[in-house]
Amino acid sequence: MDLLSLRETLETLLVDQLGTYTLANGVTTPAISVRAVGELSPARTTVSGLECIIRREAQLTGLVQYERSTSFRSYTIFLVNWGDEDLGAAAEIVTRGFSDAAIRELTTLTVPQGQGPQDQMRLVLQFNPEPEEEP
Q: Are 18 and 11 in contact (CB under 8 A)?
């Protein structure tokens, strides 16, 4: 699974749950984004409801079997509650939607009250390698 396909699938799966980004110019868009570690939303962007953030850099885990080597690609996804959203229900939708992926991690992260979102969850999805074509 590549990053663009992952983002498109997540937006489709969470279409009824996703909150809204309101950009500095007043334009609104679904609250889903792809970001690098430490990258923030554009200046003066506000978010309401459920936000989905996908870490841009995939983690690769190598595996050597016999004379072949391959790697598994894992993506970290954050579900962030900026209102009264049910993160468990959203996580269930994501995990059911990616039946071909292994859930490597599902962690609820504590957020100090008054310091931003209500709560957030981190999911790490590991995808099997793409099958190689036979010569």
A: yes
Provide the 3-class DSSP secondary structure of residue 87: helix
**Residues 93 and 85 sit within 8 Å (Cβ to Cβ):** no
Helix (H) or strand (E) holding 75: strand 68-81
Tell me, rounded to whole angstroms, the distance of Cα 60 from its chain centroid: 16
**H-helix or E-strand spanning residue 46:** strand 46-48
Question: DSSP secondary-structure letter at 115?
Answer: S
Q: What is the pLDDT of residues 26-82, one digit of tens each?
A: 999 999 999 999 999 999 999 999 999 999 999 887 666 677 777 788 999 999 999
Tell me 18's DSSP state. Answer: B
Closest CA to 61 of 43, 52, 74, 49: 74
Q: Facing residues of 59 across strands?
A: 74
Q: Name the class of domain 3-127.
A: alpha beta
For residue 107, give the nearest of 133, 79, 129 by alpha carbon. 79
